[in-house]
Amino acid sequence: MSPDELNRREMLxxxxxxxxxxxxxxxxxxELPAEVPTVADTTAQPAPDGSARLExxxxxxxxxDDPTLEQTEGxxxxxxxxxxxxxxxxxxxxxxxxxxxxxxxxxxxxxxRAVLEFWQADADGEYDNEGFTLRGHQRTDADGRYRLETVxxxxxxxxxxxxxxxxxxxRSSAVLTTxxxxxxxxxxxxxxxxxxxxxxxxxxxxxxxxxxxxxxLA
Length: 218
Description:
Blueprint: H1 3-16, H2 21-24, E1 44-46, E2 52-54, E3 96-104, E4 115-119, E5 135-139, E6 145-151, E7 162-168, E8 175-181, E9 201-205, E10 208-212, E11 215-216
Parallel strand pairs: 3-10, 3-11
Antiparallel strand pairs: 1-2, 3-6, 4-5, 4-7, 7-8, 9-10
């Protein structure tokens, strides 16, 4: 692909990120809710010099915070996923899920243009190992924010509900590979990989389930 084509794709992606959630979700067919409210971001407050000041969060509270815990990528990772913030496609079944958050450095500064790659099981606990269903990657904005639109993954034998993710800085070979979990799941107790520090803060917005998680990179 030529540099001009890559630039055009990137411009289209950045433009799509500004669209209302209802337009972003419109590709997923009749199963979608009539409206998917945007999750409010209340972490960024203006500093006296006009720059973004991030309030402390559970994931990043001082200048020497530990990075987000790494976990195995598992057997179902596939490279080359499409660039997209919404993993929803026509016919996608399951309860809608919107996950938002920040990618931060160890001193709590936002990491702009970081790359996040997500993959997960479908509502029945099955992975698409031949194509890219429920797989995709995106970049954070200048303030380190990301937004993922997907469905709640199903559990399967031996594993509780979880999302896989890889996070890296732009032009860096260092990659954080980890998994995100849902608090309060009965299967968490029997999953040997479950770690409460990787549990999202979850809630609901209408018929859509929401999750929040801030990644801290080493």
